[in-house]
Amino acid sequence: MIESAIFKALADPTRCAIFEKLAAGGMNASALRQGMAISQPAMSQHLSVLRNARLVREERQGRFVHYEVDPEGLTLIGGWLAKYRAYWPARIDDLQALLKDMDP
Amino acid sequence: MIESAIFKALADPTRCAIFEKLAAGGMNASALRQGMAISQPAMSQHLSVLRNARLVREERQGRFVHYEVDPEGLTLIGGWLAKYRAYWPARIDDLQALLKDMDP
DNA sequence: TCGTTACATAAGCGAACACTTATGTGATTC
DNA sequence: GAATCACATAAGTGTTCGCTTATGTAACGA
């Protein structure tokens, strides 16, 4: 099942934090480690999982690798969520308000 | 981290399938097992995980327990997704169209 | 009350997971 | 071309996960 793969990628708190950090701005793997008690191989493995889930994408920049949020993963989750819109609460308006609040 | 808990609940393909089945209509645990090669304790454990993640809620009906989708979990995912709306693709309109398509 | 039904919980086991240390690979600098 | 830096990969290990069988509990019917 494809959908469970992307959820599995987000099932780990460390990967959630990495993704959240990247959402605040793309950066390379070393910069990501700053302030996170995590080894270099662990970070590399987490990024690999996030990349396979299409939550993150990479771009070689010399000897650095720039990582950033891949909108594709978020779209996949959005699509999954949309399948169950019938069960969204009446508070869906609240959610839309939240969406507006999140606008830059 | 709270958000990773709900993703962990959906990280298992079997639980994904259970949730999807419940989304098509609430039913009891025995009915859920129909057509799914899964033992009774396994089903019970999966439902427990989904319930703790607020993806599913239960209601005692005699000696049956009726399970149904809990909108709360979907709202939590929606809230998580909303945090990263800045990274939603320009195709967000496509998603909204998809949302409309999903309307009953 | 006795048996059955519907479900939950306990305990144990193999597989997957997240981490570690060690090593490999590719790009820059000297 | 040698050393170094940024990162990936390999191999090993403790923990977690999802399953199993066995047992417990609550509700119903005879």
Secondary structure layout plus pairing:
Two copies of one chain form a homodimer.
Chain A: H1 2-10, H2 13-23, E1 27-28, H3 29-33, H4 40-52, E2 56-61, E3 64-69, H5 71-83, H6 92-101
Antiparallel strand pairs in A: 1-3, 2-3
The structure holds a DNA duplex (30 and 30 nucleotides).
Biggest sheet details of chain A: 3 strands, antiparallel
Query: Order of strands across the biggest sheet of chain A?
Result: 1-3-2
The oligomeric status of these chains comes to: homodimer
Helix content of chain A: 55-70%
Q: Tell me, what's the shape of chain A?
A: elongated
Q: Helix tally of chain A?
A: 6
Structural class by SSE content of chain A = alpha+beta
* Amino- and carboxy-terminal Cα gap of chain A: 35 Å
Can you tell me the number of structural domains of chain A? 1
Extract low-pLDDT stretches of chain A.
98-104
Radius of gyration of chain A, CA atoms, in whole angstroms = 16 Å
Most extensive contact: A-B, 38 and 38 residues
| Arithmetic mean of pLDDT of chain A | 88
